[in-house]
Amino acid sequence: MEMTVSYHDIVRASGLLEGIVSKTPLVKSQTLSNICEAEVHLKLENLQYTASFKERGAYIKLASLTPEERAKGVIAVSAGNHAQGVAYNAKRLGIPATIVMPKNTPFTKVRHTRSHGAEVVLKGSVFAESLEAASKIQEERGLTFVHPFDDPHIIAGQGTVGLEILNDGADIDTIIVPIGGGGLAAGIVTAIKARRPDIEVIGVETKLYPSMYEGIKGLPLSGGGVTIAEGIAVKQPGGLTLEICKEKLDDVLLVEESSIERAIQMLIEIEKTVVEGAGAAPLAALLDHHDRFKGKKVCMIVSGGNIDTRLLAQVLMRGMAREGRLVRVRIEIPDVPGALATISALIGDAEANIIEVYHQRHFYDVPAKQTDVDMVLEVRDTSHAEQVITKLTGAGFGSRLLGNTSLD
Questions:
Q1: 206 partner at 20 to 30 Å CA-CA among 37, 329, 349, 373?
Q2: Residue 394 CB neighbours (<10 A)
Q3: In what residue span(s) does the ACT domain sit (predicted)?
Q4: What was the pLDDT predicted at 130?
Q5: pTM (2 decimals)?
Q6: Which of 43, 52, 54, 211 does the annotation list as catalytic?
Q7: Is residue 237 part of a domain?
């Protein structure tokens, strides 16, 4: 295969993937359509076996290897979905796989990768150091390197997502696809534009890692920082992916971290689907660029669902605080037996739920016979919180709302 990707390559990849990967559902969300004032469809790649589209390209790349290359084995560098996609498909094809991961990779991701039979090497503190370590191992053992995005086989495999959308026959005029290195976007836009050049294909990146946006516009690369969308936290796009995206993509939009958080929360609460930060980025684009998509028939690529459970819990709790459903209250009570029981009963009567209690009598600037109690309460909304405060104050307990963590 030449260093380019054609529609024919994607069709051929689709044939190879028949029965190998799931043809994921394309579903319409009535609620998200109402919120975004657009007709919103979701392509649920988070429902793949490894919960990511990465299986597609990994299989196509591995299936292209010669018998000699297969016998020697492959090596990849990844802390996330690419690692699992390569490990899983290498096991299916009987190919030895080595995955180099940064030393700080969450243990669950290491365990999942090992569970597919791959040898995991923990080297380097950042991706560049891991890549350097992988290059040495590759040279020593004569392994084939499986690039996460800048490879025509990988791009052709990812492009089968676009082919499925076309073959589903959905009435759409816009596709929003998350971009990290650009393999998914390059593949999808190649498939779509070959048959339906009238459909807009728009990439989305987090503002912290705008590498494709900057690459297309010829700007200096500025990516860096901690993002909730680590799956698209790529500092430099691929050479081939940049070339394809520059030629074929209609636009690349940037989104705020807070919008990605909100999108993760909305997809769980509304669609009952677990999505990682990268997979939520297209919905974040709909939220951040509302006017751009108003009235459009939009397909969002939900690229993956591998989010750390602790991070997910934090996102959901922060979302409740942002919406006024989780509030902090400071209550003045006399330091006498039964006072805490009384305010607990008042809060219960007001139909609020006590989540946490901080009872501190030594360090607040309050009289010796009085204490302040800080409580985290679950309420219906901010107006319900005000009703709780009114009830407590009316019973003689001075109360006020404390500032909430806000992402806006």
A1: 37
A2: 10
A3: 328-406
A4: 87
A5: 0.86
A6: 54
A7: yes
Q: What is the average pLDDT value for the chain, to the nearest integer?
A: 92
Do 92 and 168 fall into the same domain?
no
Q: How many CA atoms lie within 13 A of 227 on its CB side?
A: 27
54 catalytically annotated: yes
> What angle in degrees, to the nearest 10, is found between the helix axes of 7-16 and 183-195?
110
Task: Round to whole Å and give the CA distance between 227 and 311.
Answer: 12
Looking at the fold, whether 264 and 172 belong to one and the same domain comes out as yes
Residue 135 appears among annotated catalytic residues? no
Q: What is the pLDDT of residues 379-388, one digit of tens each?
A: 998 899 999 9
User: Taking 50 as the threshold, does the pLDDT of residue 341 lie above it?
Assistant: yes
Which residues, other chains included, contact 312 with Cβ-Cβ below 8 Å and sequence gap of 6+? 264, 268, 274
Q: Locate tokens 């516009």: which residue?
A: 217
* Same domain assignment for residues 308 and 394: no
Kindly give, in sequence order, each residue whose CB lies less than 8 Å from that of residue 43, ignoring residues fewer than 6 positions away: 24, 25, 26, 161, 164, 165, 299, 300, 301, 302
pLDDT in tens, 83-97: 999 999 999 999 999
The residues, any chain, with a CB within 8 Å of residue 330's CB and separated by 6 or more, are: 372, 373, 374, 399, 400, 402
Question: Both 283 and 329 in a single domain?
Answer: no
306 and 331 co-located in one domain: no
Do 157 and 214 belong together in one domain? yes
Q: Kindly indicate the confidence band of residue 372, based on its pLDDT and cuts at 50, 70 and 90.
A: confident
The residue among 254, 251, 300, 310 whose CA lies nearest residue 280 is 300
Lowest mean pLDDT among 60-64, 107-111, 148-152, 190-194: 107-111
Least confident of 52-61, 102-111, 310-319: 102-111
Amino acid at the residue 260: I
Domain with 91, as residue range(s), is 74-142
Mean pLDDT across 383-408: 81
Q: Count the domains in the chain.
A: 3
Q: What is the CATH number of the domain that holds 340?
A: 3.30.70.260
Which residues are within 8 A (CB) of 279 and not within 5 positions of it... i.e. 6 or more apart?
Answer: 45, 46, 178, 231, 301, 302, 303, 304, 305
Whether residue 2 lies inside any domain: the answer is no
Catalytic residue selected from 78, 211, 303, 399: 303
